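Consider the following input, taken from an annotated entry for Transposase DDE domain-containing protein (Gynuella sunshinyii YC6258).
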Amino acid sequence: MATLHRFEYQADRHTMIHLHDVLIQPFIDSFKTPPKKLILDFDATDNPIHGDQVGKYFNRYYDHHCFYPCMCFVVIDC
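Applying the prediction step yields:
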């Protein structure tokens, strides 16, 4: 099961509040003036690997071994 899929279906209200307190609010507090809009775009991408590296797995969609990191891109509207 993909990382984003596991997160989406296992996260509950308590998890979201904790995520906000630990990650999102400190990020917002790092600005002198809080942004008017903050868009978090979570996306995963394949990173092809070669050899016998720890953490690799075979991705059937891309048809190769890879790491599949979950990244967060931030769009800020100040």
